[in-house]
Design goal:
alpha+beta, Beta-Lactamase, 6-stranded antiparallel sheet, 16% strand, coiled coil, CdaR-like_regulators, PucR_C-HTH_dom
Length: 631
């Protein structure tokens, strides 16, 4: 019987299953083949099965190589390091058909640390760190060779550590294979595949994982280089932006310097500084005095908010620039003396960081310095003019008034109309009188007035102003320079020197007497006029005439009697003479008690409810007596 080799070739060509190769042998035995023929048929079957195994291995290898090349291509397409690492472990799990895969990277000081995993279930395993030389992974990293085990825990080839063994047992891992990720002679990490059953990894699996690890190492290195390049480019962009910002800052500083220099050289003022700084910095700029009043503003119609005022006060308290976001303030200083503050409001164009950079802060502080210079210059001019005004006031108070024409000419040179009425203020101030005198000169000049220091007291006169308003101007204006409460006596308004040469002297005498009374009565730190002192004011008045006093205390009642023909004044006089007894008052006037009550109610409506209080009552009685004497 001839061996049917063609049958086996047909089986091979048809990719038949291994069991199908028993068919020809069984057919030969059924046909009664001899022992020699049967042996030859079985030999042919074994050869055919060997060929089948070779072809199967080659197909599997081709599939693995195809998958490996596909993996390499995919890795080459990825540029993000995290995506590359995750793709590596995913491909490793797929190529080896393992339960899990994971990858560790090397830390030169502390060994390997878990970077990415695929199929891992426990957090303890994901956080595992493997020292060099410990466990399978530590041995791979140390020796730069692949290692595998069919059952890790009992394998004594590796140095075990309780925490690593615990993580492996907790994950249920048995078989493990690990291969190094090599860049030249440097191990950058270890790639693992593992199974939760005892299932050895063969040489083919090791070779396949080694090949994947070689591609993976290149992909990891490329991704790292790309990330480093991106970081370098980003850093370069940041540096470029910083340089551009720096150049812009330098250009703004140069522009600001040129503008401020021209303002000083051309004799400009604080308004010019504010306008220029606002243009350079693209923000609202305001210069404030120490009381928070606006001296100059680039946006006059926009008031200073409470928050801006608080920032300004803080800068003055600290004597340096203060603020945050888009509101800043810096003090205007002349040495240690504070002259005010410069406020920088919101920017017209938003900055990236929102804060004031160093260059812009220096521009603001330089502008504040120039502002201090201009304010000092303006104050020096005012003080020079103030000295001339003070000399004229001192002459007026001394009674050595020049002739009208000379006085009118001196007033014209000082741009002062000496025919207007003036309020006269005498202030008693503690502390450095020279400094207080300078402050008084400044206060007078800013209100078109005159100031002088006379007999240890500060004397000021203000045009078109009543006594109290003038006194309050002085109290507020001298408060800071005096460093203590300022007591003021005030009089007027009195006729101007051109109208009555002696009027200012009389007003000065009355203001001095009011100041003396205020000090005697313990009214330090207050503004005191003759009217404030009640009937004492009559004694202190400049002319001693009682008519003004009677009018100030009884004027409405007298006017009512004159208009209505009533007898309210007589009723008041009788009422006080009867010791405020209504019955006796009615009897003396020959009227009913109700009539007296109605008249007194009318008086209350005319004089106000407090006219029967002790102090007012005394003043009313004095006015009644003076009215009777005058009549």
């Amino acid at each position: 019987m001839t061996v049917d080799v063609v049958a086996f070739l047909e089986l091979l060509a048809g990719d038949a299953a291994e069991a199908d190769f028993e068919g020809p042998s069984q057919a030969a035995r059924a046909a009664g083949a001899s022992a020699e023929e049967q042996e030859r048929i079985d030999y042919a079957k074994r050869l055919a099965l060997q060929v089948r195994d070779i072809l199967e291995a080659r197909r599997r290898r081709e599939g693995e190589l195809g998958a490996l090349f596909e993996s390499a291509n995919d890795l080459a397409m990825l540029t993000n390091l995290e995506a590359v690492l995750q793709a590596i472990v995913t491909r490793a799990k797929q190529l080896l058909n393992s339960d899990v895969a994971y990858l560790t990277l090397n830390d030169e000081r502390r060994g390997e640390y878990m970077r990415v995993t695929e199929g891992i279930l426990t957090a303890a395993f994901r956080s595992t760190r493997i020292p060099f030389g410990i466990g399978l992974g530590g041995l791979v990293a140390q020796t730069m060779k692949p290692y595998s085990t069919a059952d890790y825990i009992p394998d004594e080839r590796f140095r075990h550590a309780p925490d690593i063994d615990g993580a492996v047992s907790g994950e249920g891992i048995r078989a493990i294979i690990g291969v190094p990720l090599l860049l030249g002679s440097q191990v950058i990490g270890v790639l693992f595949a593992a199974n939760r059953t005892v299932r050895p990894f063969g040489a083919e699996a090791s070779a396949l994982l080694v090949s994947l690890a070689a591609h993976a190492a290149i992909a990891v290195d490329k991704a790292r280089l790309l990330e480093e390049t991106r970081a370098a480019v980003a850093e370069l962009e940041v540096t470029t932006r910083k340089l551009q910002t720096r150049n812009e800052t330098v250009e703004r500083a140069a522009d600001a310097h040129d503008r401020l220099t021209r303002i000083v050289v051309d004799g400009g003022g604080v308004d010019d500084v504010v306008r220029s700084v606002a243009e350079v910095l693209g923000a609202r700029v305001v210069v404030l005095d120490l009381d928070g009043e606006t001296i100059a503003s680039s946006a006059p119609d926009q008031p200073v908010s409470d928050y801006e005022a608080a920032v300004t006060r803080r800068s003055l308290d600290l004597s340096r620039t203060a603020g945050s976001g888009d509101i800043y303030a810096t003090p205007v200083l002349a040495g240690a003396e504070q002259l005010g503050s410069m406020l920088l409001g919101p920017r017209e164009v938003d900055r990236e960081d929102g804060d004031l950079d160093d260059g812009d802060q220096r521009i603001l502080e330089r502008a504040a310095l120039v502002t201090a210079l201009l304010l000092l210059f303006r104050r020096s001019v005012a003080e020079a003019e103030g000295r001339v005004r003070g000399e004229l006031l001192d002459e007026l108070l001394s009674g050595t008034t020049p002739d009208p024409e000379t006085l009118r000419e001196r007033g014209r040179l000082l741009q002062a109309d000496l025919s207007r009425p003036y309020a006269v203020v005498v202030a008693n101030v503690p502390g450095d009188r020279a400094r207080v005198g300078q402050a008084a000169t400044f206060v007078a000049a800013t209100h078109d007035g005159f100031a002088a220091v006379r007999q240890g007291q500060v004397v000021l006169i203000f045009p078109d102003c009543d006594a109290r308003a003038a006194g309050e101007l002085v109290v507020e204006g001298l408060r800071l320079s005096a460093g203590a409460p300022v007591t003021v006596g005030a009089a007027g308004p009195v006729p101007g020197p051109l109208s009555s040469p002696d009027a200012v002297v009389k007003g000065y005498d009355e203001a001095r007497r009011c100041l003396a009374a205020a000090m005697t009565l313990g009214r330090e730190g207050q503004v005191v006029t003759a009217d404030d002192l009640g009937f004492v004011g009559l004694l202190l008045g400049s002319d001693g005439h009682p008519a003004a006093y009677v009018t100030s205390r009884l004027g409405p009642v007298i006017d009512y009697d004159n208009a209505k023909g009533s007898k309210l004044v007589d009723t008041l006089r009788t009422y006080f003479a009867a010791d405020r007894n209504l019955t006796r008052t009615a009897g003396a006037l020959h009227v009913h008690v109700n009539t007296v009550t109605q008249r007194l109610d009318r008086v209350t409506r005319l004089l106000g409810k407090g006219w029967q209080e002790p102090e007012r009552q005394l003043e009313v009685q004095l006015a009644l007596r003076l009215h009777q004497l005058v009549a």
